[in-house]
Write a structure and sequence with these properties.
By secondary structure, the chain is mainly β. The protein has a domain of 187 residues. The chain is built from 5 helices and 26 strands. Strand 21 and strand 22 form a beta hairpin. The chain is globular and about 60 Å long.
């Protein structure tokens, strides 16, 4: 699999969280990709390389629930998470392990993430600043941790399927409610519910960071009611806010808006992303974009399907809809280090590792299936290639791991 973003299925994570928790903590006893990066980084340097190594073993009390452990790959040492020097955080939450970079919503640093990608591809990188095939600058591909929701768990695009570092939309239809606390799925004047697609990422000149969106108020599912807008979301640091009711760009986040864009990132005005009550739900994914293993079908993505997929936007009677208010997805803190899972229970793939629902154990993936990421440091001037190499258990029946081992190839600051 190449470095495209895969379809995720986090909507089912709640049902699986208890099972995954068993594997993490034992049986309750111990309890373009175009970036939204944002930091100023040095230009690529021909002499830069992964010239050092680091290893992070997480064990003992660090694997107890609700414990956070942080690592500085430049010094090859664990550091206090309250310090400014950490690069990667291992967060052993009640609902499972999460990884974070020192950036965006997770920290005050200038860090970021480029990945996940297959180890077969990642291992070809000589440094964290240049594409190994073309030598082109990749520093703008690093994403900060951010507040995200439905557009992160169910991506609107596939990336790099033609090995050209471009984004290709899947024309997925998202329902957007203005009050996620209400289970209603019928739009009204008091509480509009919109259906929206993102159908392009490039302007007429081919410049990235210009998503084209089209949407309807689901109370009026007619072609003459479709609104379309191309948005300048080229900033790596600033969000562009859209009011779906008026179709206007809003210049201030304190004003009324429902959806915001920054490069390929999308957020809704609710939860961790805003003061509103906006929530999202996947209403329809057009046929033919993914195979039975959730892998992108290249031929479909490479075809311009925006006219054909207009029917998916207008056929509101065919929409999947939330069964309760709790089914609306509200934005929460997220990182590219935490992909949604793929596969079918009991065998699930979480990118870094796999989960066996029969044994309740996690396994680091072998080289031919492994994934990893490029990490930008807290200071924004050094990089590392990161992968998980081991998750250790004392025996085949114990469900609490004794250690996790990550390895880093480090490009020091120049």
């Amino acid at each position: 699999m190449s470095s495209y973003l895969r379809l995720t299925k986090t909507s089912a994570l709640g049902a699986l969280s208890a099972a995954i928790l068993v594997a993490l903590t034992g049986c309750g006893s111990d309890s373009d990709n175009s970036s939204s990066g944002g930091s100023t980084t040095a230009p690529p340097t021909a002499t830069a390389s992964f010239s050092q190594s680091a290893e992070w073993t997480i064990s003992g009390a660090s694997l107890n629930p609700n414990v956070q452990t942080c690592f500085d790959f430049d010094s090859d040492s664990e550091v206090d998470c309250s310090s400014a020097t950490w690069d990667v955080k291992f967060d052993n939450q009640q609902r499972g392990v999460s990884l974070w970079s020192n950036s965006g919503s997770s920290g005050d640093g200038d860090g970021g993430v480029f990945g996940l990608m297959d180890w077969s591809e990642l291992s070809a990188y000589n440094n964290g600043m240049q594409d190994p095939k073309t030598g082109s600058d990749i520093t703008h591909h690093y994403n900060e941790d951010n507040s995200g929701g439905i557009f992160d768990s169910h991506s609107w695009y596939a990336y790099n399927i033609a090995e050209n570092h471009k984004l290709y939309p899947n024309n997925r239809v998202y329902l957007i409610t203005t009050d996620h606390t209400d289970p209603a799925t019928s739009s009204s004047v008091q509480q509009p519910i919109y259906a929206m697609q993102i159908i392009n990422y490039y302007n007429e000149a081919g410049v990235s960071g210009h998503p084209t969106v089209r949407w309807i108020d689901t109370a009026m599912p007619r072609a003459d009611q479709v609104k379309t807008k191309t948005i300048d979301a080229t900033s790596n640091t600033e969000w562009t806010y859209l009011n779906l009711k008026t179709g206007n760009i809003v210049d201030d986040a304190t004003k009324q808006w429902q959806v915001a864009f920054r490069r390929d990132s999308v957020k809704l005005n609710g939860g961790a992303s805003g003061t509103g009550k906006v929530g999202g739900f996947v209403a329809n994914t057009p046929d033919g974009y993914y195979d039975d293993k959730d892998e992108p079908i290249k031929a479909k993505f490479m075809t311009d399907n925006k006219e054909q997929s207009l029917a998916n936007l207008l056929n509101v009677t065919d929409f999947d809809t939330p069964k309760s208010a709790g089914s609306w997805m509200v934005d929460s803190d997220s990182s590219d280090l935490n992909p949604g899972y793929t596969g079918t229970y009991p065998n699930l793939d979480f990118g870094w590792y796999t989960y066996n629902g029969m044994t309740h154990q996690l396994s680091a993936k072998p080289d031919d299936k492994a994934q990893g990421a490029l990490i930008r440091s807290n200071s924004g001037d050094s990089y590392a290639r990161m992968r998980l190499t081991q998750i250790n258990y004392p025996d085949a029946t114990t469900t609490k791991a004794t250690s996790w081992v990550f390895k880093f190839d480090v490009q020091p600051a120049q």
